[in-house]
Amino acid sequence: MSEDVPEDVVAQVAAFLGTSTARARGLARTALPPGFVRAVRGASAHGRAVLLVEGATDAAVLTPLLRGPVVLAVGGKHLLPVAGAVAEALGADWHALVDGDADGWRRAANRARARAVHRRSTAAVLRLLPPQRCTVLPDALEAELARWPSFVAALHRHGGQLSGPDAKDPARYAAAAAEARAADAPGRLLALHRPPR
């Protein structure tokens, strides 16, 4: 459970999401990871932007690469609008990174169903996020990481992979990102250091 969220923030979250105050209260207080509000407040107090990402592997690789914004994993794509609403209500300079999962459905056993689910979930998130506050990757983060040669080499040295049983290991991603060169990182990822407003 996330820490207590003040009622004025709850009201702003309700307005941002277009939902009831009761629902906004529940989402803001229970859906976000523990320490989220404190981290957003801390970033704002130190004049740092907040980059909201879906999961722990996203945060693990982007934190050492960007070294500017505070990168916060929110626990899934569906929580990005809630996290954005809370960050907005707290006065943070924030931006969200959304996996488009354009080809993610191709990797699923039931491709037709997976394609529909991916499209619906991404569309639902994008309806709630202001376009100027989000960057949408064409596919999953791993597709971007595959275009980062020094990261891929470092990941292999740490026993990790971008797909398969050793994929999505936050510790390996963080170690590889810390060793990789920013010079050959994909431009889409580097642009998140100072995303457009």
Distance between the termini: 30 Å
In DSSP terms, counting alpha (H) and pi (I) runs of 4 or more, how many helices?
A: 10
Give the low-pLDDT segments: none
Q: For the residues shown, what is the average pLDDT?
A: 87
Shape: globular
DSSP E strands, number? 4
Within the largest sheet, what's the order of strands? 2-1-3-4
Write up what this structure looks like.
By secondary structure, this protein is an alpha/beta fold. It is built from ten helices and four strands. Strand 3, helix 6 (111-128) and strand 4 (134-137) form a beta-alpha-beta unit. Helix 1 crosses helix 2 (21-31), helix 1 packs across helix 5 and helix 4 (56-66) packs parallel to helix 9. The two termini are 30 Å apart. The mean pLDDT is 87.
